[in-house]
Write a structure and sequence with these properties.
heterodimer; A: Transcription Regulator spoIIAA; Pectate Lyase C-like; 2 domains; 15 strands; B: alpha/beta; Rossmann fold; 41% helix; globular
Chain lengths: 236, 265
């Protein structure tokens, strides 16, 4: 490919550390170029953590694995991946690479109205298992269960078509208008924006053992008067 | 055709990985398959004990990895079953004395000579787990009908998925037939169903399994008990045969309906 080599891989320093931007072009060529660039500045890159900006590019699990191995060879750790491609995001989740939330002005997430990013959603069609963390700047839709010990953190809303039993945090960047709905909403902990709810022990006993599939009542959680309120779907 | 490398793992300890590995190895050998069992629980080896090979160990997996002997020198052949051999773990080293690449290379070498390579993994999800899974084509997740074991299984399934080893297949070990009959296990079955992976087998709890393991002659050597038949059924499923679940667990549909019906009937 006769593409200008500088444009395919860009390495720059940002407030949050090193950032590598991957452009278009053949994957193996990108890798070898990145390899060469990292080799030039071994002393500089060694031991650093980079954020990878992949844009809309589709990267599959195998390709991402190759990239991580390449970075590792140069003693560089992949801190996070920013992508607007769903397959890439899924590959990243499969390899437990943290998906970057979009750049925020400071280290602390700030309260702000729903921004344009939050209209973007991802669909995850699998069981989210104990120890797994699903993070996305926009909405998250899970077709499957969120098991105990798993966490889902979304900038926007969270919808679980299944049993939601892990930790759920909607509106994670401060949006109190975010909602969480699930076919069976029995999370270990539920957060919306800055609010945290652990369901009161006596009032709404959390079954350690879930009711048989299909017998639970779908529910929606949202914030009303500064509190998280859970409403059965039918009573809306 | 090169053989398949299958890792038996669980996350939680004490659910019966080692005993199950030994019994599946014996059952596969009785089916006429060539099988090598590998113990990767370095520092706490005991697959050799259960298989009755403890006092014939000369070299172990760490010796192989560090080049002190050839792989073939470390393998111990079963006295009765010609297709069965064991690569024992080292008792004097620890988990860090071997790496995933080395275990994967050993699995790769054994694959050529065997129909199955069964890797017994240590408990936990640390380096020993990654060693055990490194060379695997497939993982078998073992759980018992206890909440804590099921939670660990869920974690391990997720890790296996993230390593590109697929969700794996599930064996529920030590089901108590009495509890099943009384309906006391229903709750557990609901929880197990939430693991949402294919069921490979169900092994009833049976003291004979322990008695046999203590004698160093895995129970699968004889087919007289329910537990032993369960081992053989699982072995046959591993060879690709369609084997119906045992009467108490038999019926069509999901795991749950299958178990529900078993309990109702």
């Amino acid at each position: 490919m006769a593409q200008a080599s500088e444009s395919a891989v860009t390495i720059r320093g940002t407030r949050r550390g090193l950032s590598i931007t991957i452009g278009a072009g053949e994957w193996q060529e990108l890798l070898s170029e990145l390899d060469a660039r990292l080799a030039q500045g071994t002393a500089f890159f060694s031991g650093s953590r980079v954020n990878l900006q992949a844009g809309r590019r589709e990267i599959n699990t195998e390709q991402l694995r190759q990239l991580i191995d390449l970075l590792r060879k140069h003693k560089v750790e992949l801190a996070s991946l920013l992508t607007s491609s769903r397959p890439t995001a899924e590959a990243a989740q499969a390899l437990q690479v943290r998906l970057a939330l979009a750049e925020t002005p400071g280290p602390q997430p700030v309260l702000r109205p729903v921004d344009q990013d939050a209209s973007d959603g991802i669909l995850v069609h699998r069981t989210v298992r104990s120890g797994q963390s699903l993070r996305h700047v926009g909405h998250v839709v899970v077709i499957g269960d969120v098991n105990p010990g798993a966490e889902v953190i979304a900038g926007g809303d969270i919808i679980v078509w299944g049993r939601a039993r892990g930790m759920l945090h909607a509106g994670a960047m401060g949006d109190e208008g975010a909602v969480v709905c699930a076919l069976e909403l029995t999370p270990a902990q539920l957060r919306i924006g800055p609010h945290i709810a652990v369901s009161p022990e006596g009032q709404r006993p959390r079954p350690r053992v879930p009711p048989p599939r299909g017998q639970a009542q779908p529910e929606t959680a949202s914030v009303a008067e500064g509190q998280i309120v859970v409403v059965p779907w039918g009573n809306r | 055709m090169p053989g398949r490398v299958i890792t038996v793992t669980s996350g939680k300890g004490g659910v019966g990985k080692t005993t199950l590995t030994a019994n599946l190895a014996v059952a596969l050998a009785l089916l006429g398959r060539r099988i090598t069992a590998i113990d990767t629980d370095i520092g706490l080896r005991n697959l050799d004990l259960v298989m009755g090979m403890e006092n014939r160990i000369i070299y172990d997996i760490v010796d192989v990895a560090e080049g002190r002997c050839h792989l073939m020198q470390a393998l111990i052949r079963d006295r009765h079953l010609s297709g069965l051999q064991l690569l024992p773990a080292s008792q004097t080293h620890d988990k860090s004395s071997i790496g995933p690449e080395e275990v994967a290379a050993i699995c790769e070498e054994l694959r050529g000579e065997n129909d199955f390579v069964l890797v017994d993994s240590p408990a936990g999800i640390e380096v020993g787990f990654y060693n055990a899974v490194a060379g695997a084509d497939e993982v078998i997740i073992v759980t018992t009908p206890e909440l804590s074991a099921v939670r660990s299984a869920d974690r391990v399934i997720g890790l296996a998925e993230s390593m590109g080893k697929g969700p794996g297949r599930l064996i529920i070990n030590r089901i108590k037939p009495g509890m099943v009959r009384r309906g006391d296990m229903l709750d557990t079955f609901d929880v197990i169903e939430s693991l949402a992976i294919e069921l490979l087998g169900v092994v009833p709890d049976d003291e004979a399994v322990i008695v046999a393991a203590n004698r160093g002659v895995p129970l699968a050597n004889e087919q007289s008990t329910q537990a032993s038949r369960a081992f053989h059924n699982i072995a046959r499923r591993l060879t690709g045969e369609e084997v119906p679940f045992m009467p108490i667990f038999e019926a069509r549909g999901s795991l749950l309906t299958r178990l529900r019906r078993a309990i109702a009937g």
